[in-house]
Amino acid sequence: MFDHQYLWPNGSSIDDQFEGAEGLNIRFSASRGSMSLGESQGGLPPDTVVEDEDAILDSSRGAVGRFHDGSPGSMRSVVIAPCSPFSVTPELMRESAALARELGVGLHTHVAETADEEDYCLENFGARPVEFMESLGWAGPDVWYAHAVHVAADEVERMGASGTGVAHCPTSNMRLASGLAPIRRFLEAGVRVGLGVDGSASNDSADMIGEVRQALLLNRLAVSPGVGDGEMITARQTLELATVGGASVLGRSDIGRLSPGYAADLIAIDLDRVEFSGSLHDPVAAAVLCAPQRVDFSWVGGKPLVADGEVLGVDHRRLVEQHNLLSLRLVS
Amino acid sequence: MFDHQYLWPNGSSIDDQFEGAEGLNIRFSASRGSMSLGESQGGLPPDTVVEDEDAILDSSRGAVGRFHDGSPGSMRSVVIAPCSPFSVTPELMRESAALARELGVGLHTHVAETADEEDYCLENFGARPVEFMESLGWAGPDVWYAHAVHVAADEVERMGASGTGVAHCPTSNMRLASGLAPIRRFLEAGVRVGLGVDGSASNDSADMIGEVRQALLLNRLAVSPGVGDGEMITARQTLELATVGGASVLGRSDIGRLSPGYAADLIAIDLDRVEFSGSLHDPVAAAVLCAPQRVDFSWVGGKPLVADGEVLGVDHRRLVEQHNLLSLRLVS
What we know:
2 copies of one chain form a homodimer.
Chain A: E1 2-3, H1 14-21, E2 28-34, H2 53-67, E3 76-82, H3 90-103, E4 106-111, H4 115-125, H5 129-135, E5 143-147, H6 153-162, E6 165-168, H7 170-175, H8 183-188, E7 193-195, H9 208-221, H10 235-249, E8 266-268, H11 283-289, E9 297-300, E10 303-307, E11 310-311, H12 316-331
Helix pairs in contact in A: 2-3, 9-10, 10-11
């Protein structure tokens, strides 16, 4: 699992995330995200949530030092991830890239999620988002962009040529009316594409197995008459986005496949249920298309993480109660 | 529940459907669907599945006589529903409309699901699908079309003016790469819009509560930059498609609302689950957006149909086993 957190209110930090993962058999990659360009400076976020850029860089270096393990089979890693070209300065983007390369960690940010961002980049930097990111050193096999919806054909080619990847977030792009990401073009251009559920502000269900189906549905719509053209994506291609593709954008060659030399990261779904009725001749297609309601079992590195649909090592009921209390307090 | 069945192989008939519903507390409307124009006559279906048109009309009259109850609170009704303009003759369409009006039952068919159908109608009948259906008497408050994807702005207006309705099938339209139905235009033009999951050949999950979320997501995408424009549909509007809208296309003023004088048709979802965590401040939005995995309870006319997520009166396990056996036999 990779998480892109870029808001650190009330003294929270990436340490809290790794503390939360403690004792769970989850393969967890967290980002030291950041926002530094407040509204008063022409940025997107309110001034109250932005941080000082030197502090961001110091803290990023510290997070990598404390938590990053780049060895094969690693269970914990850190990525450097300013929020978006809207919300940090070009200088922080450039320095983040230099720092990540010095430390040998990945780089991630939001690029071209909305048409607004395209306008913003053209107006402020005289370049479209992908070209602008390239000019800051944000291209290459250690970089992947979240969303990449409003990306023109020539930008797709540039991303393919530089080896830059994409986290495709189908539900979020629909939920927020962001637009249709050019996934077929990405795949044809050899762009690495993984699958994301985005955060709870943009998708009300952090359900990765459901997102695989959504990726199939959205990318079939994308090639329908009146919308676009091309070949229809298959169930297996969509499942690959979530497995091989996800591992690839994270820069890992030790996970994402069931193959000798790879970690034994597995899921299991009980197909003996009404929702899979009539689909048993093709279990792979069934797991993508029949709207699975849960993963019944999962193993990470051969050790159990989920059993009978429940995450092991978590007091589920207490956590939901606490979350509901906190969220009601936040809303009221 | 409404079902549009139009294939009657091996001596099967609408009687089998009503027999299947026997003993279940389900409000069931079945269609006497039909196909009469085989490939050899220029139609879509293979010649082996088409029926004789006189036999279709006789059988339709018989089905209405045996099963249709048009009284308020009715639990069983029949609709006359030739498959599509591709698969029956214009004469059968015309005679079906006349018969339905004589008997006082509804009319349903596929219209403008695919761009192919538009081409077919223009080529064969010199009119776009909606105009062609109008010319056959297929417009009015007793008519609703399945899909209605490739419908031009002026056709939307005509449908609004005649009171013709639509069954919107978001997942199916994505799954089959059919296209984007103009739902926002329909709603603005006062077209009645209900929600459908389509059949198992076009949607691998007959999950109505999931389809409500899909309708929201698809119709938000429909107003995103590069795709289309307009206001974003809300959770409540989407839920209305599945309730008020569905009742309306079925021509019913006794269901679809929780209101004095209406039947007590209710669903209940247990929000005390991890998928709804943090959403309790707005239970309606939660039930639409948080990807509910099941309806926990339902009542039809105040009597239980679903309890603890299981349909009452059905031997669930035996049915799934039987379905899996039959479907494996079909595929092999």
